[in-house]
Design brief:
This protein is mainly α and 221 residues long. α3 packs antiparallel against α4 and α9 crosses α10. The radius of gyration is 19 Å and the shape is globular. The protein starts with a helix and ends with a helix. The relative contact order is 0.13.
Length: 221
Amino acid sequence: MIDDLRDWASERLGHDFADAGLLRRALTHPSAGTPNYQRLEFLGDRILGCVVAAWLYTDLDEAEGKLTARFHTLVDAGSCAAVARELGVPERLIMDRATRAAHVRESVNVLGDVTEALIAAVYLDGGWPAAEAFVRRAWSARIDIDAKAPENPKSRLQEVAAARRLGAPVYNVVWRDGPDHRPSYRVAVSLRGFEDCEGAGTSKQDAEKAAAIAMLERLDK
């Protein structure tokens, strides 16, 4: 199995692992025991953020607000999970039978965590140049310097609500779950005259944005 993972990493991640144990660890779900990807994910999250922030700063002459909007879109769980699927990560996740049967390998949060863990594994095995090269290769199709920076959906919802005289949107946390280093939030947004809309994310801010997008879609209808 290790040789198969090495071949996959060489072809899909563009990195030849000297320590294949790091690669296996990055692909191991907590259900399969320890060591698993959780500590690596903590490190990879920071590496991804630094690489993407430097990339945007260097390549785009934009105000901080626009850079921030691009940044959050590129490093959120959804983007990381999409990268994982493109790399073929779900098929290579190591987890117990019950967890696999529950289709956890398709979870956006799990795939996002594993992608960050893989970034950390590449960094620990090959150093910063290898990790940066991996991120730039995997995210290259997502960074379009000619595209307009994404609009903050919360700001857009506030503008639409004001234009329609619906009052200000109100956000409330419905629940919070998960470990402190990787929590999950569900937030509901209320707007006069409409049923609440909910959104989920790995931060309160991301969940609020998801809820705002859901409400904007309802208003459009």
